[in-house]
Amino acid sequence: MNKIAEDIINAHGGLHTWLKFRQVSATLNQGGALWGLKGKGGILDHTTVTVATDVQWASHAPFGTIAARSDFTTHRIALLDGDDEVISALEQPRDSFAGHALDTPWNDLQLAFFAGCAMWTYLNTPFVLAWDGVECEDAGTWQENGETWRKVTVRYPDSLEVFSKAQALYIGPDGLVRRLDYDVEIAGNTPGAHYVTDYTTVEGIRFPTRRVIYPRQPDGQRMAEPLVVSIELSHITLS
Fold this sequence. Notes:
The structure is a single chain. By secondary structure, the protein is mostly beta strands. It is about 15% helix and about 45% strand. It has a single domain, classed as Clam (outer membrane lipoprotein receptor (LolB), chain A). The protein has a 13-stranded antiparallel beta sheet with strand order 6-5-4-3-2-1-13-12-11-10-9-8-7, covered by helices on one side.
């Protein structure tokens, strides 16, 4: 972990505090155009999400009326019933997205994979910068919302399942993440600009409770519409 990562992590509560916990759980409310575009509107609008902090694992419970919960890991996705029996599962789920564009419909396991990968990454940011193989470096400054943000490029190792191996974080004057940029490889490399606001403190850790994602233009500016995804988190707990 270099000095850039250390500074960002310290602003969010520090690695020492983060390592006391193994899971983050929150009530999740979602909206935006993506879910209907993929033919999966309403399934994960209101649920609970839980992610691990020491391994790559996430779960949404319930998974609509389809399953009691989902089970996302780096190389597998599954849907489970109330007795934790497997309803359906897929090994190497990323391969199933070959040839997908933004408007390609998903099946239930693909939705579970996308949602699990997304929420694991979001709730572990920026502490994932301390993981082995994750690299970050300064990429200059960026002007937005009347502030000067520090842009930091991030590269993830092949050992982690993320939307794209090359991403960017934008850091506000207070050291907190303001925005994330990535190209969603499993949706035709669709470029997104992901904004985080409304921070709260839980057990000494700073979490944004509101996220909105818009298309990103070639010059880095966001498009005003459509709102691709909206996320609101409440009742955040660490254990």
